[in-house]
Amino acid sequence: MKYDPIKRKLGVVFNKTPFLRKLFYRLLDVLLLRSWHVHKALKEWEKDHRGKQQILDAGSGFGQYVYYMASRNADWNIKGVDVKPEQVDDCNTFFHKVGLNNANFELGDLTRLNETEKYDLVLSVDVMEHIEEDVLVFKNFYKALKPGGMLLVSTPSDQGGSDSHHDHDHEGEGGEHSFIDEHVRDGYGVQEIADKMKSAGFSKTEVHYQYGTPGKIAWKLSMKYPIVMLNASYIFFIVLPFYYLITMPFVLLFNLADVSSTHKTGTGVIAKAWK
Predict the structure, then answer these.
(1) Crossing angle of helices 225-232/236-259, nearest 10°?
(2) Strand locations in 109-178, DSSP E?
(3) Distance CA 89, CA 83 (A)
(4) Tens digit of each residue's pLDDT (9 = 90 or more) over 141-155
(5) For residue 238, how many other CB atoms are within 10 A of its CB?
(6) Cα(195)–Cα(222) distance, integer angstroms
(7) Residue 254: how many CA atoms within 13 Å on its side-chain side?
(8) What is the CA radius of gyration of the chain?
(9) List of domains in the chain
(10) Cβ neighbours around 12 below 10 Å, total
(11) Structure confidence by residue, pLDDT tens digits, 188-225
């Protein structure tokens, strides 16, 4: 089951106009449960951080979270960093078009991030599972944060967050790859990521599972099943609006249940750490 080709196809469609791209961001905010958890954490952080704030989106991708933050508060100055030059150029072009001048994007490798006490917040969503030298990156984040600054990480857990524990998804068994086949690890345990953050210098951590039972159901309905269909045939692009029309109420209810609850286990982890 391939994810990146679908993502690229959708990107081409929704990048035709700024309106469509904004619509795409909004759809992701609604459909993706991780967005619900990240937004909740950002709103909690915002309560104690008024006025000018410097924020780093470490691994900004196509700019979904930078757009959310830049639109939310004009006093926040956000820098997105990514290793893919085409995404950096694309995001800079789009943000310039829509007039969000409190955000910019730069090409960068997080293992080589070398900034000192610059940011009030570092956000990293679905990035750490791609990086072998994760403790080094946590140390770089620690150095880049101002005293009292916070690191917010959302990543798959070791409870199947990369969907790599399903035998039928592994390459060599039916010829398929796992759902996300570029991960260097399946995910993190709660204690594991807390220990790594503390070893990087962070004085306080707070780590919770996300994607508990309701979240797993929501993810299958909102993301996995549609991508399975699109992998089978792109003709399902025509069917997709009708599919979401039926499933959307259930997705929203399951997302709300997941973000409102605590979970003993889950396929995702949301972690905070303070300098």
Answers:
(1) 160
(2) 119-125, 145-156
(3) 11
(4) 999 999 999 999 999
(5) 8
(6) 33
(7) 21
(8) 18
(9) 4-274 (3.40.50.150)
(10) 8
(11) 999 999 999 999 999 999 999 999 999 999 999 998 89
